[in-house]
Amino acid sequence: MSKSNSYNKAIRYKSILFWVAFINICYLGQSFAQDYRNPKAYIRDFGKNELYVKESLMEYSTSIIDASPDTRIQVTLERIYKKLEDLEVNLLTNDKGINGDTGLRDAFLTLNTKTITLLKNKSLKLNDYQVQSALDYGDIFKNFSYKEMEISDYYKAILAYENSKRDFGLKFNIIIRFFNKKNVFEYDAYQNLIFYKLNVLDDKLIELMKAKDLAAVNKCIDYINQIGKESLLKTDQLKGDYTDTSLNDANIELITFFIKQNETLLPLYQDYVVSFESFQKKKAQFVESNDAVAVEEYNSEVRKYNKAKNTYFDALYEIQLKKRDLVNRWYITNSDFLRHNIEFENLYEKFTSED
User: Fold this and answer.
1) pLDDT in tens, 46-84
2) Rounded Cα gap, residues 258 and 251, in angstroms
3) What does the pLDDT look like over 170-193, one tens digit per residue?
4) CA-to-CA distance for 28 and 38, rounded, in angstroms?
5) Average pLDDT, the chain
6) pLDDT, tens digit, for every residue of 195-211?
7) Cβ-contact 348, 31 below 8 angstroms
8) Exposure of 292 by Cβ count < 10 A (0-12 exposed, 13-18 middle, 19+ buried)?
9) Where are the alpha helices (DSSP H) in 134-213?
10) Torsion over CA of 34, 39, 42 and 44, rounded to 10 degrees?
C-alpha cells in the first residue's frame, strides 16, 4: 500500500501551511510618493498599508485552516506573491522615507525579497514525501538540514525587521507597535518539520519492504529511530512554548507510533523474507527431483511461506490503517492549533502606540 497515495487527500494543503508562516507578518500594501510633514505622518501611512495587507492574509490563512480546495489556495498564494513583487517596485519608486531616511523601507524590502524567493523556489515544500524518499540518505538528510536552516534563517529575518521597525521609531521619538511575542508560525513550522522527516523516511521504508532487502530495511529503521529520538528531544524543548500542547502531544504520539510500528513489523518482515528465500530454494529443488519426498517437503515449505507472508501483510495492513487515521488526526490537530492560537491584530488598530 502506498502511503503517499493513501494520504493524498489529507496532505493536499500541507505545504501551504508553511507559506502562511512566511508571509503572515506585516507587509506594506501601497506607498505614496509624497513629502511627509513629520515622521508620525509617514509612519501612520506605513501602518495603514500594513493593516490593508493583513486583511488579505487573514482570508488566506482562513482558507488553509478550513482546508479549502488546492486551486483556491494556489490562486490566493499567487495573488499574494504577485502583490509582494509589485509592492517592491512601488516602494523603490515612491517611498522616499523621512527626510531621505529610508531605513524602515529598506528593512522591509530585505525581508520582502527573501519571502518572494521562498515562495518562488518552494524551498520549504513539505508534502513531497514520495520524491524525497526516493533519494539516497545523504540527499535526504541534506534536505532536512536545508529546510531546518531556512526556517531558522527566515524567522531571524522577521525579528531583524521587527527590531528595525522599533529602532526606526525610536530614532524619530515615536513608539511603533512591533512583534515581540513568540511566533506561532515558527513553532508550527518546527512541529511540521518533525512530521515531515518521519513521513519521508517511513515512505522510504514501505517501498524498501517491497524489495525484500533485509539489510536496506534495517538501515532505514535505524534512521527512523534516530530521527525519532531527535524529534522527542525537540518536542521536549517545545513543550513549554504554549499552554496549548495539543500539537506537541500529537507529534509525540506520532513518533511513538513509528517506533512501535517498526518493532512490530521488523520480526514479521524478517520471517517473511527468510521464508520466501527458503521457499524459492525448495521450489527449485522440487522442479529438479519431483519425487514423493520432495513434494511433501515442498508443500510444507509452501505452508510455512504462506503463513509468514499472511502474518506480515495482515499486520502491515492494520498498521497502515491506524497510521492513516493517526495522520488524519494530526492534520486536524495542526489546523485546530493554528485556529486557536493565531492572534491577528485588530484591522483598525493604530500603528503607533501614541494613537
Assistant:
1) 666 566 555 555 555 555 555 555 666 677 677 777 877
2) 11
3) 888 887 766 656 677 788 889 989
4) 19
5) 79
6) 999 999 999 999 999 99
7) no
8) exposed
9) 137-171, 184-210
10) -150
* CA end-to-end span of the chain: 60
Q: Are 199 and 229 in contact (CB under 8 A)?
A: no
Burial 195-219 (b: 16+ CB within 10 A, else e): bbbbbbbbbbbbbbbeeeebeebee
Q: Long-range contacts: 147-152, Cβ < 8 Å, 24+?
A: 147/123, 147/193, 147/196, 148/193, 150/118, 150/123, 150/124, 151/124, 151/186, 151/189, 151/190, 151/193
This prediction has a pTM of 0.79
What value does the CA radius of gyration of the chain take, rounded to a whole number of Å?
Answer: 27
Nearest residue to 36 (alpha-carbon basis) of 112, 87, 104 = 104
Q: Distance between CA atoms of 57 and 77, rounded to whole angstroms? A: 10
Q: Quick one: pLDDT band at residue 348, thresholds 50, 70, 90?
A: very low
Nearest to 85 by CA among 47, 36, 119: 119
Query: What pLDDT score was predicted for residue 345?
Result: 42
Residue owning grid cell 495522520: 327
Query: What are the beta bridge partners of residue 98?
Result: 101
